[in-house]
Amino acid sequence: MADVFQSMRSVSPANKQNSFDSIAAYEEHYMKLIKKYQPEIQAIADMMKSIRQERADFYEKVLPAIEKTMSDDNVMSNEAKMEWLSELRNCTEKSLEISEQLVNHYYTKNLEEFKNALQGAREGI
Amino acid sequence: MIRDADYKSCVETGLLIMQGQRKKLINDCLNLSPTIYLGLHSSESKNLRELYFQSYITEWLSMHWEKMNEIIESHIDYTKDAQKRMTLFYADYFASFLTEYSNSSISAKLMIPDGLNVQLEQLREMIRYNDKWQLNSNRMRVQMKKSKEQYERLIKEFEAKQKKEFK
């Protein structure tokens, strides 16, 4: 079984790397990695922003516009109108959720890569 | 399965497909596409209305897969291997989408429930036995066409029945 308390134990003096040079080298690697991954970080942030904006637009602008189209078109049955609007909301939500899943998996993949690269850099110090 | 270099492009393509189909759904609602319009105006029969709505949605769902195929086919520079990776990458998300959808609202009472179930089974087969990805992808496209035809036939039958009742 894995030692779940490992992270709570103090680091032995032999393993401590707290000299200024080590910290500075670690920081330098960290900054280099951030710089290297900056386009990915930006891309993920943009993707998420675009999905959030689309969801907000859907509820604030698109849905009222579709309701108006239906009213202008004299849809007689209120039941039919409600049924279709509910279906539309459902389909849009499910589709947005899949888009979020795509971005989340991309984010997780990048984070994993980033952590591995950081771990590699830490071992090298 | 997916190479690192492909991952971003697969994600971006996936996002484009999803976004494109959401736009299509919205435009079809705003422009009252014939199937939606007929569904909204068939107030006399709840069954017929649901058939129209289900017919539209099942076709809309199929369009996601068709769009992906179109994109793959339009890239003549894609190798067979790249096509396979992209198809399997998207199959995973498309299966989630269909599963989520089949558990909700109108689809819970689909008049042709087998259509969606068969597509889901074909997607799972595609993911499980990935060497047969092309065969399963083709089978799925055939199944989607079959579902569309089944809905068209059912709608015609319902309409004919209604006309008889009104006479």
Overview of the structural elements:
The complex is a heterodimer of chains A (125) and B (167). Chain A is mainly α and 125 residues long. Chain A has one domain. In chain A, 80% of the residues lie in helices and 0% in strands. In chain A, helix 1 runs antiparallel to helix 2. The longest helix of chain A is centred in the middle third of the chain and has 53 residues, at 20-72. The model of chain A has no long low-confidence stretch (mean pLDDT 83). By secondary structure, chain B is an all-alpha fold. Chain B has one domain (4-166). Chain B has 6 helices and no strands. Chain B has helices at residues 4-30, 34-40, 46-74, 80-102, 113-128, 133-166. In chain B, helix 2 (34-40) runs antiparallel to helix 3 (46-74) and helix 3 (46-74) packs antiparallel against helix 4 (80-102). The radius of gyration of chain B is 18 Å and the shape is elongated. The A-B interface holds A 40, 43, 47, 54, 58, 62, 65-66, 69-70, 73, 75-77, 79-81, 83-84, 86-88, 90-92, 94-99, 101-103, 105-106, 109, 113 and B 4, 7-8, 11, 14-15, 18-19, 21-22, 25-26, 29-30, 32, 36-37, 39-43, 46, 49-50, 53, 57, 60, 93, 96-97, 100-101, 104-106. Chain A: This is Conserved domain protein. Chain A: It comes from Ruminococcus albus 8.
* Rounded radius of gyration of chain A (Å): 25 Å
Number of helices of chain B: 6
End-to-end C-alpha gap of chain B: 61 Å
Summarize model confidence as the mean pLDDT of chain A: 83
Strand content of chain A: under 5%
H/E element sequence of chain B: HHHHHH
Counting structural domains of chain A, the number is 1
Chain oligomer state = heterodimer
- What helical percentage do the residues of chain A reach? over 70%
- H and E order of chain A: HH
Most strands sheet of chain A: none
Largest interface: A-B, 38 and 36 residues
Radius of gyration of chain B equals 18 Å
Regions with little confidence, pLDDT below 50 for 5+ residues of chain A: none
Assess the beta-strand content of chain B as a share of residues.
Answer: under 5%
Task: Name the shape of chain A in a single word.
Answer: elongated
Structural class determined from secondary elements of chain B: mainly alpha
Q: Major β-sheet of chain B, in short?
A: none
The helix fraction of chain B, in percent, is over 70%
Average predicted confidence as pLDDT of chain B: 84
| Secondary structure: number of strands of chain A | 0
